[in-house]
Specification:
The chain has 349 residues and is α/β, with parallel strands linked by helices. It has 2 domains: 3-123 and 301-333, 2-Layer Sandwich (Nucleotidyltransferase, domain 5); 135-296, ATPase, nucleotide binding domain (Nucleotidyltransferase, domain 5, 2-Layer Sandwich), CATH 3.30.420.40. Helix content is 43%, strand content 17%. It has 12 helices and 10 strands. The chain has helices at 26-29, 39-42, 50-72, 91-108, 117-128, 168-178, 185-193, 218-229, 235-260, 277-290, 299-302, 307-318, and strands at residues 3-8, 13-20, 30-37, 81-87, 112-116, 136-141, 146-153, 156-161, 267-270, 294-295. The protein has a 5-stranded mixed sheet with strand order 3-2-1-4-5, sandwiched between helices. Strands 8-7-6-9-10 form a 5-stranded mixed sheet, sandwiched between helices. β4 (81-87), α4 (91-108) and β5 form a beta-alpha-beta unit. α5 (117-128) crosses α12 (307-318) and α6 runs parallel beside α8 (218-229). The protein is globular, with a radius of gyration of 20 Å. The protein binds 5'-O-[(R)-(carboxyoxy)(hydroxy)phosphoryl]adenosine (KG4) and zinc ion.
Length: 349
């Protein structure tokens, strides 16, 4: 058995967890975890401010490690390895977490594992559901990424699709801003959408039906802004119409990916937007249509957390995949480095 410390600091959550890879359920695998959200610090600015994020991670991370180890009834000596997010993300925050992981690994004489944050999301469904075997088709939807990947095995990812402009979570956050719902926007849009009529506002579905399964959400966001500026629409109707249009796009794109993917044991969704219940429901229906079960981690494991980083670390540790102490933090770090740039895509994709 292995006990792995996980550290996450790539965006606006500081998180620490201890993972026991011999547990057979989510509860027994996550020995302890703590998460400190910076929402309140960023709220006045309507989005994550990188400098504020890095400083806040630096202030709380070391005491959180001590507290999480205490919760787990462990000292550094009892750990088998230290896993820390090394990218992609806001570089200041990533450096705080990675340097902390390096210092702990060095002080305790334990191996360091530099985890790709996206791999953490990609493998989080395996942490939650021990029966989920490779290969699977993964829809990875977060604030910074919107991709469909074949997860063939640990470290073996083939990107089938990405966004040519905004990520899905970004589109939810921008819609929330337009509607004055504050930050973070995704959960607020979902809540407001429940009270609205999605048919009340006609909105476009970018790239619907196009042959390659890529995404585009910038036009949808602009259409929400135009509709809002007419002053004729109820905010709940706008939220519902936006959410429905976005989900229609995701389902159409994922259906297209299912046509071209190799064998898959399941349809899997992960990343912050996977917490959205309407999206999960629609994906469940799509999975049934394709004869695949849908695996979606519990919502708390979809948004950023350290349990997924510890778990990715545990999978790597089991294969002896450790990193040297001079490993560097990477603001960009694609899961599939061989994927070609998409025509029409901006720098973010
Ligand atoms: O994975 P995550 O916590 O951080 C990144 O790595 O980006 O994802 C955060 C994103 C944000 O854009 C947030 O608005 C969105 O996930 N999100 C949601 C929901 N919960 C979080 N979007 C729609 N519905 C939700 N319930
Ligand atoms: Zn994330």
């Amino acid at each position: 058995m292995a006990l792995i410390l996980g550290i996450e600091s790539s965006c606006d959550e500081t998180a620490v967890a201890v993972i026991d890879d011999h547990g057979t359920t989510l509860d027994t695998r996550v020995v302890a975890q703590r998460i400190a959200s910076q929402d309140a610090a960023h709220r006045p600015y309507g989005g994550v401010v990188p400098e504020i994020a890095a400083r806040a991670h630096a202030e709380v991370l070391a005491p959180m490690v001590a507290d999480t180890l205490r919760d787990a009834g462990l000292t550094l000596d009892g750990l088998d390895a230290i896993a820390a997010t090394a990218g992609p993300g806001l570089i200041g925050g990533v450096m705080v977490g990675l340097v902390t992981g390096k210092a702990l690994a060095m002080a305790a004489g334990k191996p360091l594992i530099a985890v790709n944050h996206l791999e953490g999301h990609a493998l989080s469904p395996r942490l939650a559901d021990p029966s989920l075997a490779y290969p699977y088709l993964l829809l990875l939807v977060s604030g910074g990424h919107c991709q469909i990947l074949e997860v063939r095995g640990l470290g073996d990812y083939r990107r089938l699709a990405t966004t040519i402009d905004d990520a899905l979570g970004e589109a939810f956050d921008k819609t929330a801003k337009i509607l004055g719902l504050g930050y973070p926007g995704g959960p607020a849009v979902e809540r407001m959408a429940r009270a609205g009529d999605p048919r009340a506002v006609p909105l476009p579905r970018p790239l619907l039906g196009s042959a390659e399964p890529h995404f585009s959400f910038a036009g949808l966001k602009s259409a929400v802004l135009r509709a809002h500026d007419t002053g004729r629409h109820d905010a709940a109707d706008l939220a519902a119409a936006f959410q429905q249009a976005a989900i229609d796009c995701v389902i159409d794109r994922t259906r297209m990916a299912l046509r071209v993917t190799g064998p898959a044991t399941a349809l899997v969704v992960a990343g912050g937007v996977a917490a959205n219940r309407a999206l999960r429901g629609a994906l469940e229906t799509l999975g049934a249509e394709a004869g695949l079960r849908l695996v979606a981690p519990p919502p708390a494991l979809c948004t950023d957390n350290a349990a997924m980083i510890g778990w990715a670390g545990a999978e790597r540790h089991a294969r002896g995949l450790h990193d040297a102490l001079d490993v560097v933090a990477r603001p960009r770090w694609p899961l599939d480095a061989t994927a070609a740039p998409v025509r029409g895509a901006g720098v973010k994709a």
